[in-house]
Amino acid sequence: MHTRRIGDVEVSAIGLGGMPMSIEGRPDEARSLATIHAALDAGVTLIDTADAYHRDAHEVGHNETLIAKALASHDRGKDVLVATKGGHLRPGDGSWTLDGSPAYLKEACEASLRRLGVEAIGLYQFHRPDPRVPYAESVGAIRDLLDEGKIRMAGISNASPTRIKEANEILGGRLVSVQNQFSPAFRSSEPELDLCDELGIAFLPWSPLGGISRARELGSAYAPFARIAEAHGVSPQRVCLAWMLAKSPVVVPIPGASRPETILDSLAATELVLPADEIAQLDAV
Q: 20 to 30 A from 120, CA-CA: which of 31, 155, 227, 236?
């Protein structure tokens, strides 16, 4: 498995996104555990989750609990960097709400610590800006958690270039990751990716294949990905991830999966080297 870095930690160049295993349409637990174990067997050392990855109101942290169970039952579990997030909530009616208050973020972190069964969270990320709370106050809470040793590394998600710079300043230069949506269908985070490349901050594209409902349609929606995939005898999804990896050494995609075969196909992208002319074709989509 090829590797990249988040802060001072070496991780697999592609991580596993846990959300599909816990929200609407999720598989049974056995298949989810098999998916996580398949990823670990293949060399994955980064798993992304959040306390808001759940379906019903009474099961906050469902995905964190699932991942903790999977890691505890695998001999490579201790080698995994678990990245979780706080500040997003799901009331249980299918909607998403926000709470970026420092008090809530610190409470959420404590709950995540308990569910993950660790003394310090490897990477804790502020999930999404809350317009009711000054951004500096929210990131200040993440800084406090870092200073207190509750978290080992700090990141932010869904952030603009201005907020990336602000967060890094508030954290005293200790911002290690930015997790933004980025895919062939969502290219507006390229300025954030470029800034992370400049600053040496890991950029973690979420929904890199277009999201749970659209990932299978990637090839039909974007002809160059299908054409290049056919030329290499691989899936359009694999081409997509290889394209992302080629954009910058700070890019660490975290495709979601709920089947062993899908995460294994995604991980194979680390072995796919696209020539410059094909990368240019994909950049032009």
A: 31
Backbone angles phi, psi at 179, to 5 degrees: -110, 105
As a three-state string, the secondary structure of the chain is CCEEEECCEEEECCCEECHHHCCCCCCCHHHHHHHHHHHHHCCCCEEECCCCCCCCHHHCCHHHHHHHHHHHCCCCHHHCEEEEEECEECCCCCCCEECCCHHHHHHHHHHHHHHHCCCCECEEEECCCCCCCCHHHHHHHHHHHHHCCCECCEEEECCCHHHHHHHHHHCCCCEEEEEEECECCECCCHHHHHHHHHHCCEEEEECCCCCCCCHHHHHHHCHHHHHHHHHHCCCHHHHHHHHHHHHCCCECCCCECCCHHHHHHHHHHHHCCCCHHHHHHHHCC
Residue 215 has pLDDT above 80, yes or no: no
Distance between alpha carbon 57 and the CA centroid of its chain, in Å? 23
Q: What is the pLDDT of residues 217-276, one digit of tens each?
A: 888 889 999 999 999 999 999 999 999 999 999 999 999 999 999 999 999 999 999 999
Q: Active-site positions?
A: 53
Angle subtended at Cα 151 by Cα 171 and Cα 34, rounded to the nearest 5 degrees: 130
pLDDT tens track for 31-53: 999 999 999 999 999 999 999 99
The answer to whether 127 and 180 have CB atoms below 8 angstroms apart is no
pTM of the model: 0.96
